[in-house]
Amino acid sequence: MAALLLTGFTTAAVAADSHKPAASADAAGKDGFQLPPFPADAQVTQTTTVDGRTLKYTVTVGSLPVRDEKGNKTAEVVFTAYTIPGKDRPVTFALNGGPGASSVYLNLGAIGPKKVAFGDAGDSPSDPPVLHDNPGTWLGFTDLVFIDPVGTGFSRALVDDKQATKDFYSTDVDIEYLSRIMYDWLVKNGRMDSRKYYVGESYGGFRGPRITEYLQTRLGVAMSGVTLISPYLDPSAWSNDTVSPLPWMTTLPSIAAAHLEREGKLSAETMAPIIAYTRGEYATTLMKGRSDPAATEAMIKKVTELTGLDPVFVKRSGGRLETQAYLREVYRAEGKLGSRYDSNVTAWDPFPHAPSQRTGDPLLNSIIAPTTSAMVNFVTQTVGWKVAGRYNALSYEVNRLWHEDDDAREGSVSQLRKAVANDPKLRVLIAHGWDDLSCPFMVSVLAVDQMPAMGDPTRVQVKEYPGGHMFYSRADSQAALTRDVKALYGTR
């Protein structure tokens, strides 16, 4: 089982256009190539209606520089901020994942004041990208700042690929410059006294604990709360799948959840015994291996019952259900594929007789067009930030150039523990969709259960909701998430 670093795509995808070396205004003419400068920050006033209440807010789209140790500008990071005047307004910084994803998914899908339809069963990439009021926006209780890492959205490196890889496209430098961007935004906008929060999705969830601890201990900025949505929290959970039961324990509950949802029976109550079985008899049977044939036979029968799969397929898999094999098998009779981001979102398989999957993920392929079109229209037409350049909702080029530092495989659980220990008032909500096979909820459940309580054990909570990686595309799940986040912020 390959570990997945991505919020919406895989490294097997074809790379996007390669980046040419660019020069900033600080280094005009370097290598004979220069990008046009970014425009000044642009603003517009809008309104949105939430629960019968009209919110009037300011949208600001602009950029912040990244500079090297000599003061030369090496990149420009674009942000989209939604603010409402008022005393004691918190501010929340939002990042998606990838590496290589812009923040458009949290912005126009989950928590921004406007929303475009994407990521749910039946959505089409050719549907008009119309923005409408988002009933699940967090703007009613916090200002929002969405950040696009270098190489995503309109954000750009001003150095060549080799230098950009060194400066931006690895685990540690990614955390350092993004933390500094948050610091710089706070200083620029006079918000250092505000309560500060972080929300990150997928690899943005990997970033969350690391950014929080880095801000606490290096830049002197303390977060009041952190929300991790479908986080890629512990990559080591997928390692050593030939001996350890852990990789299979993480995916079985999500596959069982997908089966329950197809039967209209998915709930916390129906999932509880499945989780208990996974942590108990299933795990011990896998560890016994061939030493207990009777236990293995009983396990295969139970897994078949929980998943609704062909018993021959389950037996040949040894009760160990590899994600991509499952997503082909479960819909094979229909000639379709399931998505690893929401296993009940499907698309036609264009190569049904191939020995392995030869096309992209069904959900991923459907979301790039609506999110890109909606965000480009919003930034350039509605807000009027007249930028020249391509918008990268998902940058395959960044993903291709990305490399992990030595501790990346350890995930961010250690940094989560440190951040919680550093601040006795810090609260963390980890939110997952039941059907997500890219970042299964069971990984976070197991990781948090191994943490010391450090005072109030409810300071770090894991919550699950119907849906997949982008469970917030479902109205009921989005509403439940918003209620849980309001509790984190101390708002009702």
From TrEMBL:
InterPro entries the UniProt entry points to: AB_hydrolase_fold, Peptidase_S10
UniProt keyword list: Carboxypeptidase, Glycoprotein, Hydrolase, Protease, Signal
Record's protein name: Peptidase S10
GO biological process, one term: proteolysis
GO MF entries: serine-type carboxypeptidase activity
Coiled-coil annotated residue ranges, if any: none
Signal peptide residues on this chain, from the entry's feature table: 1-15
UniProt xrefs under PANTHER family: RETINOID-INDUCIBLE SERINE CARBOXYPEPTIDASE, SERINE PROTEASE FAMILY S10 SERINE CARBOXYPEPTIDASE
Family annotation (Pfam families): Peptidase_S10
Domain of life (superkingdom): Bacteria
